[in-house]
Prior knowledge:
By secondary structure, the protein is of the alpha/beta class. Helices cover 38% and strands 14% of the residues. It contains 14 helices and 13 strands. It has helices at residues 3-11, 19-25, 50-65, 86-96, 124-136, 147-159, 178-186, 235-245, 261-270, 306-311, 315-326, 330-336, 361-373, 377-391, and strands at 37-40, 69-72, 103-107, 110-112, 140-143, 192-195, 204-209, 213-218, 225-227, 250-254, 277-281, 285-288, 291-294. Bound molecules: glutamic acid (GLU). Residues 41-43, 75, 239, 251, 253-254, 257 line the site of glutamic acid.
Amino acid sequence: MNENELLAQLLLPDIDKTPDYFEKMYPERELKDGARVTRIAPSPTGYLHLGTLFTSLVNRITATTSSGVFFTRIEDTDKKREVTGGIEDIIEGLKRFGITIDEGFISGDEESGDYGPYQQSRRAEIYQTYVKDLIKKGLAYPCFCTAEELDNVRKEQESKKERTGYHGEYAKHRNITYNEAKALIDEGKPFVIRLKSSGSEENRITFEDTIKGKIEMPQNDEDFVLLKSDGIPTYHFAHAIDDHLMHTTHVLRGDEWISSVPKHIELFKILGFKVPKYGHVSPIMKLDNGAKRKISKRKDPEAAVHFFAEQGYPAESVIEYLMTIAASDFEDWRRANPTEDYRKFKFNLKKMSVSGALFDENKLNDVSKIKISQMTSDEVYEKLTAWAKEFDVEF
Ligand code: GLU
């Protein structure tokens, strides 16, 4: 064994598989040309948010329009933030709004599909197998820095007005030898595994965002963490492994992730994976004293989808309204097809708002009025009694 192989064996002695094993286990999907595979990957940290419902709708309709697959994956690597019943709240919430799920978590405790497990806490062996391979190839290494040491480095960088982070000369353990690592492990020191980045701040990358168009950014040069000290992956690493093995073609997610794309592209390349198409969905905004801002989980009741149910909006109205935000050509289509199921609409990611649509309650009310007027009286009666049972028994 060479030095890197010895190191890999020292750090992850229990891993006896190679990436090849999983590549064979999860072969390409057999789908027709142009079919898009999309997903949402929520963390079970609370109730279903309007933003998650919106992103789910965009993913669902992208898959539907192309005869593809939409699946759900639970990102539960942060056990501290998890709430009981969190998975169920999200999945049942989506179903309540008519978002059908082809694969992955189809209820709070049940998954279906050939690409599972669809819950990251059950995929530790998979992540560790790929990390071990990167270490063997000299592309990842253990870092024994304590939180305090990292904090000191950050302060030093700040005082010198330098870019903060674990990169370049600040990447202390970048060239750690087998013997050095062995000595620290024998002392019982905890470690994380970092990527040995080959990027440079000076270089720029460009990628075509399917929603926002061409984006240019500096390459990643940060030796960011792949596996935390408990052997659980970071979001970045889990995203690369899971979306590769689950054959996601389009990663459509909240635009707070744009700044991480250089990291993700580097990871896909280093791992030898095809980079998926990215599309970053702008958040739904709100006017607050004349200024536009993101709808906030803390401040705004409408951030929780439950709010709309409580107010008595039928699920169909909320979805119809979200479609008008999602696609600038939806309303024209709707005028031409007043009673057609919205799923028949040919959705195009290029027609999405780049800057973030404003939440408009009057518009929601208008859309809802039309939806309700198209229901039969039996339907209205049924929905009204169901609503009253849940929210206003006296009524
Ligand atoms: N768990 C991440 C989130 O909820 C997923 C982002 C993604 O879709 O990749 O923001």
